[in-house]
Design goal:
With 244 residues, this protein is of the alpha/beta class. The chain has a domain of 163 residues: Rossmann fold, CATH 3.40.50. It has 8 helices and 7 strands, in the order βαβαααβαβαββαβα. It is globular and about 55 Å long. It binds adenosine-5'-diphosphate. The site of adenosine-5'-diphosphate (ADP) has 14 residues, from α2 and α3.
């Protein structure tokens, strides 16, 4: 049932980061510290596809083709989700908004409810991402992932666990990675500009060399100094902290 969540003043973190920037990891780490849910439109759409319902049927072919699902559809999904009681304490948005239309609809929705949005932009050098992703190898039998630089198999090209020949995933090929990064740029830059012009606080967080915990700490410090989170940055591994 929809709750009355007007004027909560709770923070809504809008996460942006290119493929390979550790966005999913940060969303999960932030989720452990904040009260609100992690909302990923990609996950929501996949749930509808698994359920085989009307929304899933509309989305499935587009997703398979790597195309965006229509704005009206995702906007409605998010509108409904945001009106649920667990969002009162705020939320983390991941994979939404992806177009200027979605960004404008979201901002209006958050304003209507009195949320305080903040954009977190994970910045990573693209050459580093290409190196990181194109150095990944996967076992086609058991699915184990290896990294040629940080976690190589014991024998080159062979899975430690079952001896199968490792492969490069189709979407980890360098040309595909570069295409995904170009797409990310063309989608994201206008949206970041839109939020900047609308006066939404924006944290640019260098996520290239730091460990996931260090990146989390930088995000937390930024949110604290922007006044979005009440407490001083907790120690890594501390209990979840409250929100303002
Ligand atoms: P990825 O980060 O690999 O694109 P996601 O799980 O975020 O994965 O999204 C998977 C697919 O779901 C996208 O390729 C797109 O088809 C669809 N999708 C997810 N979020 C949106 C959105 N905000 N607007 C339109 N389509 C979306």
């Amino acid at each position: 049932m929809a709750a009355d969540i007007r004027h909560t003043g709770a923070p809504v973190l809008i996460l942006f980061g290119p493929p390979g920037s550790g966005k999913g990891t940060q969303a999960k780490l932030l989720r452990q510290r904040l009260k609100g849910p992690h909302i990923s439109t990609g996950d929501m759409l996949r749930q509808h596809i698994n359920a085989g319902d009307e929304i899933g049927r509309r989305a499935v072919q587009l997703i398979k083709a790597g195309k965006l699902v229509p704005d009206e559809l995702v906007n409605e999904l998010v509108r409904e989700r945001v009106s649920q009681a667990d969002c009162c304490a705020g939320m983390i948005l991941d994979g939404y908004p992806r177009t200027l239309n979605q960004a404008a609809v979201l901002l209006k929705l958050l304003e209507e409810h009195g949320f305080r949005p903040a954009v977190i932009h994970l910045v990573v050098d693209y050459e580093r991402i290409v190196a990181r992703l194109s150095g990944r190898r996967q076992c086609p039998v058991c699915g184990t992932l290896y990294s040629l630089t940080t976690n190589p198999p014991k024998a080159p090209g062979i899975c430690d666990l079952d001896g199968a020949h490792l492969v490069t995933r189709e979407d980890d090929r360098e040309s595909v990675i570069r295409e995904r990064l170009r797409e990310y740029d063309s989608q994201t830059v206008p949206i970041l500009n839109f939020f900047r012009e609308a006066g939404v606080p924006m944290l640019e967080v260098g996520a290239g060399e730091a460990s996931p915990e260090q990146v989390l700490q930088k995000i937390w410090d930024g949110l604290t100094s922007a006044g979005l989170i009440a407490d001083a940055a907790p120690e890594v591994g501390a209990a979840p902290s409250g929100l303002k």
